[in-house]
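chain below, 130 aa
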Amino acid sequence: MKALIPLKQFLSERLTMMTADKCHLLIVNGSFKEGYLEYTARLLILDYRADPVEVLIVLREWLKTNNRHLDVLGKDIQISFSSEVIDIETFDLEIDFPQRDKVVADDSSYHICPTLVWDDTRGGFYPAGT
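prediction:
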């Protein structure tokens, strides 16, 4: 879940019509089972005064850049959305996308395992971003 914190800043920088105080990141419908946190991340963007499809494109870009765009089977996650159309140029957007984090815990602490990605140069799987 903490890996999603930079998303709000990224959206604020890329979407000039969005202000940080109008963007909220929520975690909903979470579960912890067999060592995995599975949850839905929800972006709530209020009074957005630009193209709402652009938000979906920018979100997909961030997810892909941060290796958070694939499900357990290695397929693209589904991004779902709802919108209140306030007028021709103003929208409230609610965007949901699933996420999954591997948790390793012992008696006194825990850590989240990084997503592993294949590196052709090194010939193996390595933590994303290294």
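The chain has one domain: 2-104. DSSP finds two helices and seven strands in the chain.
thats it, cya
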